[in-house]
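Cell shape-determining protein MreB
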Amino acid sequence: MAQAARHSSFLHKLSRHDVALDLGTANTLIYTADEGIVLDQPSVVCFERGGALGKAGETTVAAVGRDAKALVGRAPQNLETVKPLLHGVIADFSAAEHMMRRFVAMAQPRRLFGRRPAFTVCVPGAATRVERRAIREAAFSAGAASVNLIGESLAAALGAGLPVGSSTGSMVVDIGGGTTEVGVIALGAVACSGSIRVGGDQFDRAIIDYVRGLYGVIIGDQTAEHLKKTIGSALRGEPIERLRATGRSLDDGLPRTVEVTSEDIADALAMPLRQVIGVVRQVFETAPPELVTDIADTGIVLTGGGALLGRLDQCLQAELGVRVRIADEPLSCAVRGAGAAAAGAVEAGQPDFHGHD
Ligand SMILES: Nc1ncnc2c1ncn2[C@@H]1O[C@H](COP(=O)(O)OP(=O)(O)OP(=O)(O)O)[C@@H](O)[C@H]1O
Ligand SMILES: [Mg+2]
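Tokens:
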């Protein structure tokens, strides 16, 4: 009976007008209970100085999301592409505000009918008060009536379908564009956690440095990301995949095409992957022994885009001696989990799901 009352109070909290938002370093996603994922775009905004509509010296938004990402590294001089987030937190407030406002307008959740929604926004567990306030303010400026923040680990665990409310601990490792967050979740909250400012962006950079060192060719960010997604592997060995990549030769400054292998990528990523493994080890070292026992039993779940790196699960499993599985649809776990939290999957007021800075 008590449980039924509790359940109905959760249902009462569930509003059709709630919007969950994951403002990530690489991608921004918006989710509503009715329509699911209504926006999934790269976190990039492109400004035009003194554009057709703007007065001389004035800056206008020329493109956001995929359209803006296509311009990264290619934009003409009057255009400037900006990634407003760095390591999961806002680095350029004005750009983040413009981008978020555009995204919310593009998503235009159908059932809002012009009403201001309640936002539940994912934030890195390690975000400072100032960084949390910036995210909150950007959400208000994008039209939120109220803003709840949820730690990314808890959101990712919920979205991955882990039994977060259980007393048995689960571990989630979220590898995003700019951060890796490790969380041990039990009883609806984060029991212990760790994070490192290493994610897919640092993987791309490591590939650029490696190709430059090995072949004397400078490739761009997008080429590096393409290599990582297409033939990337966390481990050397068969099957070896190959892909041609074109960049600028260090010798003569002219275009040069080289063949990169999955083993090259494994070598390039060895260092950043060691850092990722290091933070998971640290969390094991600081977690209470009972929770460590639980995780040895239940394994580790990988979320975030980095989870899709080839053979990463095998690499982590070999290094840590614990079973590792990749969540379904790892890129959208955090936003779906934030949506579930907004719908009452964890009780508001938990330390990691609160409305205060
Ligand atoms: N198939 C793939 N293999 C390897 N990496 C991938 C793959 N698909 C996406 N990624 C990487 O995942 C990263 C984006 O992941 P995600 O969208 O979870 O990050 P984010 O939430 O925006 O970042 P953060 O949580 O750090 O703020 C990018 O670096 C992208 O290159
Ligand atoms: Mg993320």
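The mean pLDDT is 89.
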